[in-house]
Amino acid sequence: LPSAAAAAAAAVVGAARAWAFQARIVAMDRPALLAVIVLILAPGGKASCPNQCSGHGACGNENVCTCDDGWVVMPDCSERQCPYDRAWADRAYSDDAAHTLAECSGAGLCDRAQGTCTCFDGYTGAACQRARCPNDCSGHGLCITLGALGRLEGNDYSARPGVGGDGIGPEYTNWDADHVTMCNCDWGFFGPDCSLRMCPKGDDPLTVDQGYRAISVRLTGDGTGLGGRFRISFLGFTAEFDAAASAITSNVCEDRFQGLGNVESVSCSTMNYGANGGSEMNATFTAWPRQPMENNIHFHSGNPAIEDFSCDISSVTVTGGSDDSVVCELYDVSASNVQEYELCSSRGSCDFVSGICFCQEGFTGEACSDISYEVSSSNAL
After folding, report:
1. Where are the alpha helices (DSSP H) in 114-213?
2. How far apart are CA 337 and CA 360, in angstroms?
3. Secondary structure, 3-state, 245-264
4. According to the UniProt entry, where is the signal peptide (predicted)?
5. What crossing angle do the helices spanning 30-41 and 4-22 adopt, rounded to 10°?
């Protein structure tokens, strides 16, 4: 028969188990029973966590590991955590709100031993947070995010439309700004993966009595003169001018515009404008490059929109007035019935692999812009 002491101990243990699992013990017995439970579960009064948290965390009083940064509760902090970024797809948590943080952005598998993501096809980055550009842009372009594309290649603007910008394109800040990408092709290449070559471009030789594209640039302020410099950008190329009216001459205008890689020749006229030291330039574009300096983002067909030109006035100063009064306005001078600027001059087929034009019968030249014999309405193609 058990002794009286053994029977008492058994009763205490039984009561502890009953309290722990059934919560039926009265309040007055809890302190004693808690002491017994601690002694049973953690001899010596010290917490005992699985694998001592693998040396990558701290063991709490309830025998639960609190892992160091970069380690995961599994449950002994023995596995590494992978980088997090916004999930490509997940369940919305409120109206128009989704894309919470997810390990490997939900587009890859975590290597727990190394703490690195193995991305699924089409994704890249430490957290698989960026879409991979098709064919890595075929070696003829740069894979760029939507956010960077807007800042670097977007139309310049300001809070006052038509006044002038600051040289920086629109700021795109939606969740996908640094996730979605596209190819920004080298000059002369286009297509989603920059694999297509542009053929020479020219004016259709069968369209006659056409003029040239012309614009006006007017720079003004509210003082007695302008200083500093301003910049005119056109489809990826930028020309810089002195802002002083005395520095704006026809020769300077022609030299700066013809220095743009996508302009072949231009004719300018200039004048002072107003009584506050302003100036005006009229630029007529008489030829575009035979070999186009264009790509999948920047291109035109001979009549570029006025919005394709922008004016950066962030470095212009005003003498005897406010720098905030500076205005750079761009106007259409001639924007109708202008000469075309088309691949193979619309008189041939472009081989997008070689970038060579195959001219229709009766037309010749690098861009098929020359007539090889008299073409009438009866034999025109």
Report:
1. 146-153
2. 24
3. HHHCCHHHHHHHHHCCCCCC
4. 1-47
5. 90
Determine the Cα–Cα distance for residues 29 and 27; give it in Å rounded to an integer. 5
Give DSSP secondary structure letters for 169-189: -----STTTTT-EEEEEPTTE
Residue 346 CA to residue 275 CA, distance in Å, equals 48
Residue 15 CB: number of other CB atoms within 10 A? Answer: 17
Contact (Cβ atoms closer than 8 angstroms) between residue 88 and residue 175: no
**Average pLDDT of 350-379?**
86
- pLDDT of 376 > 70? The answer is no
**pLDDT confidence of residue 38:** 42
Task: Tell me the DSSP string of 91-116.
Answer: --SBTTB---EEEGGGSEEEETTTTE
Phi, psi dihedral angles at 348 (to 5 degrees): -170, 170
Please give the Cα distance from 325 to 243 (Å, whole number). Answer: 14
In whole angstroms, how far apart are CA 250 and each of 40, 207, 215? 96, 30, 14
Q: Which of 340, 337, 338, 312 is nearest to 326 (CA)?
A: 312
Q: 294, exposed or middle or buried, with CB in 10 Å at 0-12, 13-18, 19+?
A: buried
**Alpha-carbon span 276 to 126, nearest angstrom:** 55
Q: Please write the tens of the pLDDT for every residue from 270-308.
A: 999 988 899 999 999 999 999 999 999 999 999 999 999
- Band the pLDDT of 164: cuts 50, 70, 90: confident
Question: Which class for 37: exposed (0-12), middle (13-18), buried (19 or more C-beta within 10 A)?
Answer: middle
First and final CA of the chain: distance in angstroms?
118
CA nearest to 110, candidates 79, 151, 77: 79
Residue 156's nearest CA partner among 171, 178, 174, 177 is 171
Query: Which residue carries 């009083």 as its tokens?
Result: 61
pLDDT cut 90: percent of the chain above it: 73
> With 80 as the cut, is the pLDDT of residue 56 above it?
yes
